[in-house]
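Q: Got a minute? One more chain.
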Amino acid sequence: MKRKNILNIVAAGAIVSLMITGCTASHTESSVSDRVTDTVVSAENEIEEESVVSGYDEVIELSDDSGTVSITEGGSYLLTGSSEDCTVRIDVGEDESVTLILCDAKIVSSSSAAIYARSAGDVNIILDGESVLMNEEGFNDPEDEEIDAVIYSKTDVSISGDGELKITSGDGKGIAVNDSLDISGGYIDIDASEDGINVNEDFLMTGGTLTIKAGDDGIHADAILTIEDGDITIGGAEGLEATCVLINGGKLVINATDDGINAALKTEDMDVKVEINGGDITIVMGEGDTDGIDSNGDLIINGGIIDITGQSTCDYDGKAELNGGTLIINGEETDSIPNQFMGGGFGLEGGFEEGTRPEVGPAPGEGFGHGEGFMPGNGQAPGEHPAGN
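A: Always. Here it is, folded:
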């Protein structure tokens, strides 16, 4: 769906009125069922309408009385407002699609996911404005003990748009998806005590800006982790981890205390490898038993610029091929891929303490701003799996 800008029309004497449904009694489950039919704009002095709120079926206006908001029919829903104790729960047919438009929404959950997709064919999240999703107290949902992330989905999820989303997970993951996750737009900032993003199948990024500070993996996929484009900044124990890591473009900055990029066997369906065909990649490793790129299979570089700083910059168990691109190891360009290279003294001065997370992106609760809270590809210094794994 093409993202719609959600604007309150500001003009002398103009009044914008939205038909709002979906959020009722305090801390009780409310069902979204009524349809929004139109947006009524009345204006004194006959001011011409400049924009309308459109492109969705229903509006959910959040408040502290929202409790659990249940979406039980496929369709598109605009979420706006703020709630300090809320879960938006999606429970529709497996052949139905749900689109959530986050428009200046703030959802805090004290014991569960802020957004929980229990059942759907797929879930599409469109970012508009500045939105916040949080759980800082931990996950203890009596209805589903598997929930361990601020966005938790048992089906495929896509994220797009040009808005901003801040995710804070004080005792769990940022995003956990049992199937696959695609990101094609938006400014997304994740601060998580465990994995920033964890998917049981494939991860694909084709655009947008992603900033992650994680206690474990920045981005973890069991199958294929593909980066086609976008800006990614990660601080964590490991930056990227999957059975197959495929980088074709984009700008990537990783500060890690374990492995910067790690390919390890998570599924039997494919070969273990790291393949880099393009992109601008900077990896800075902490001191100790760390690897800039660690492949339990092959390491293939066909293009791109890869700049690795660390004591052990590359480690691979299969074949290594440098067929193109530029590989810089501790400040010097090389025409071969080292294996378990121990530079001795090339690591960061002091390194990172075990279990700490490098400071990447804004602290919890700080504002947005593409040059303030976020760090979109500025090139500076910049896991546990979902249940069932």
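A: Confidence is low (pLDDT under 50) at residues 1-53, 341-357, 361-389.
Q: Perfect, thanks.
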